[in-house]
Amino acid sequence: MCFSAEASFGAGALLSVIGIATIKQVQDRSQFPFALLPFVFAFQQFSEGFVWITLADANFASWQYIPIYIFIVIAQVVWPVLVPLAILLMERDAKRRKILTFLLIIGITLAAYHIFCLFNYNVYAEIKSFHIYYALYYPHPKPFLDATFYLIPTIMSPFFSSIKKMKILGTLIFFSFIVSLVFFTDYVLSVWCFFAAIISGVIYLILKQPVGLLKIEKIQAGL
Questions:
Q1: I need a labelling partner for 179 at 20 to 30 A (CA). Which of 117, 172, 198, 223 fits?
Q2: In terms of Cα–Cα distance, which of 57, 188, 179 is closest to 135?
Q3: Which residues of the chain have pLDDT under 50?
Q4: Residue ranges per domain, the chain?
């Protein structure tokens, strides 16, 4: 499978439509950040579409760092925080909230580290073999440890939610990461974000559950 500006813009457009439909499914204020996830994915895919354009056309080369940094900030700063936060706000079980809070702290710590790196180390992107390769010159004495800390808040959070179908979302995102890692090793950041964006359509199904489900969860949690 090859990817292109058209694929990124197409994914962004599709996710925008899904985002509108998802927002309409919001039944409680606590669900709103979670419902915004498809829109954030859409914005990220649109930004990568512009990365393709600025890398492929020398006339736009001077603008390439704007969409590059937008894409990376969303991938490495926004997602580790927004995913556990959005799920935490919806969670009614006290024990699960404590776990999600811990995952959120990990995400915030990782996001702060990435912000520091983005301000102090070089970043660039290039088109290689029909994919975008992002070169991040961060100090990574233990890259496996850094990757693990990234996966914990972004992938594990759905598995600790009591909300039905949330684990389906976590499972799909996890397997999309494995596929990206195995078959697109040098392009994991770009390819995984693309797969995760498409998978985020499951968010619509999660919020489409009957309004009574949220009330039942509150009663079971003693709220």
A1: 117
A2: 188
A3: 1, 212-223
A4: 5-220
